[in-house]
């Protein structure tokens, strides 16, 4: 059972995007950082354990040519071996900051060419893998940036081709070191999932085709891929083979966010947030899922949800048009 | 965001505008032939081929200010006049209605069905005019050509773009409050029951498969809502049962249109951001606007047809009161561009002015560019 905790007020309401909440846990400093996209700006704030807001900062999308100010698509903290960077993706490019958002260390402008005349051009989908940061593109490409231990000398190391439609989300987990073991998953608007092994050269291991609906959110944990789809389904796959193991008719509207830590959290536009327990069956070794808890956020189209601690005993939720971060913790 | 959103935004808002005007014309007992002429003139301007051509070009959404200017012009495409307070109220109602429809769409693609509902109703207003009917049908075809092949992902982007456009608008509408689709805090009710989107299964089932793809376990869970599968998919053909009720006319003579101004707007910071747009942005937007409005062929009134004023409120006193008490954060600023020194802009405006026919008495001004700017200024005062 979960109970509602004190909300954290936001300066601006959350935009109707997917994966619109990033959480950086800093247990050593007894702090939690939250990042939410409002539209042309993103808000970062840090809070103490009881949800008391301590500091906040707003970041703007870097201006460019165009009629209206550029919109941010996602904000996400990337935890790398020696540093944490905050990454912002927009319709103009990719901005990388030190983790508190105080200094921009890198700017990558989107090279749209003539594409921007007929289709939306943007970056979306952010994840850290080892000392790399992967960022998805409207074209389906995934850019891989090599991040040094400190300083701004960030280099575009590779451009992965695997998707034909805009990338929606990227998930990673620490590399196992063995060859052929997946540690990066990328998802796109057609529902296709590409499974990769990171390295100086990323290797495409397998592809899991879509079925006509977008996959806005994906997670990877202990070799299991959790994917949320536009028709409300959550599917769990074996990362190494791409085999489907579990199919959950979880929500009545499109899923907008997933988190995995070790429980699975799913949130959708139907106002519900569900928590599922994952386990490996003793025989067979396949994945089993049990529904733990469902929370309805009345009249709110949820757009972001994350666990706030490593054990999954608390989580936070954002909703479209809502100028606060809702918090829940288990009793 | 999506560069294919403007046609959907424009047509749906235009449809809502016509519903409201139709209701007010009848409530104010405007003679049938005059009322029909007003609606005909507006619809004819909306679906003008040149205008539609500009509208359907891939482009970013206009700012709220710019879009409001287009509707100001459209509402005055006939002998009808609206005071500022009535125009404000009209625009409030239009935007909240479409925001509601977008939010409640079960699938992102259903926004196309909402658009078709509006077009179906518009055709109902112009049954006696075969040329106009043909224009609307052509627009139908254009919509089908462009959006018919869009993927679910592209519709999701359009939905997100529309919702970002409507972000932070919480004006309370009486008819919504009465029907309990809007809460007293201005937020819409999102029901957790009813028909599911086409293609979504009833939540509540967990299926487990083995390595060979065989189902080995089936477990149910309580999902908290009370949903049923959609009975059938709405039709995307020229004629057909849309199934979805969103976008159909919710007004009738007995349901007056009222708005309450939601007092403290929650995100003042967000709204002031919009109104202090830097001048270079305004210039470029004026160019686009002028191109769009230039495609509107406004007819001059034939003969000694007198104009009349439509009131969106029940009495003139109410209208005056509304103008005085409108909260500052809800002011719609119609584009008010200082005369630019930009030679290129003036030339372009002059070119577009040549395609214009102004309804009012001609002003004596030195350059045609000034005429357009003066006209824009006048819109703010009417």
From TrEMBL, chain A:
Keyword list, A-Z: Cell membrane, Cytoplasm, Fertilization, Membrane, Repeat, Ubl conjugation, WD repeat
Biological processes per GO annotation: single fertilization
The protein's assembly and partners: Homodimer and homotrimer; forms tight forms of dimers and trimers. Interacts with IZUMO1 and IZUMO1R/JUNO.
Biological role: Plays a role in the adhesion and fusion of the sperm-oocyte membrane through its interactions with IZUMO1 and IZUMO1R/JUNO. When cross-linked to form dimers and trimers, it has a regulatory effect on ERK signaling pathway activity in response to EGF stimulation. Colocalizes with the EGF receptor in WDR54-specific vesicle where it sustains the internalization and controls the degradation of the EGF receptor after EGF stimulation.
InterPro entries: WD40/YVTN_repeat-like_dom_sf (IPR015943), WD40_repeat_dom_sf (IPR036322), WD40_rpt (IPR001680), WDR54_beta_prop (IPR049546)
Domain WD repeat-containing protein 54 beta-propeller: 1-330
Cellular component annotations (GO), alphabetically ordered: cytoplasm; plasma membrane; vesicle
Annotated compartments: Cell membrane; Cytoplasm; Vesicle
A Pfam family the protein falls into: WDR54
Gene3D superfamilies according to UniProt: YVTN repeat-like/Quinoprotein amine dehydrogenase (2.130.10.10)
PROSITE patterns hit by this protein: WD_REPEATS_2
WD repeats (start-end): 248-279
Full protein name: WD repeat-containing protein 54 isoform X2
Automatic annotation (TrEMBL), chain B:
Superkingdom, natural source: Eukaryota
InterPro entries according to UniProt: OSCP1
GO CC annotation, single: cytoplasm
PANTHER family linked: OXIDORED-NITRO DOMAIN-CONTAINING PROTEIN (PTHR21439), PROTEIN OSCP1 (PTHR21439:SF0)
Protein name: Protein OSCP1 isoform X1
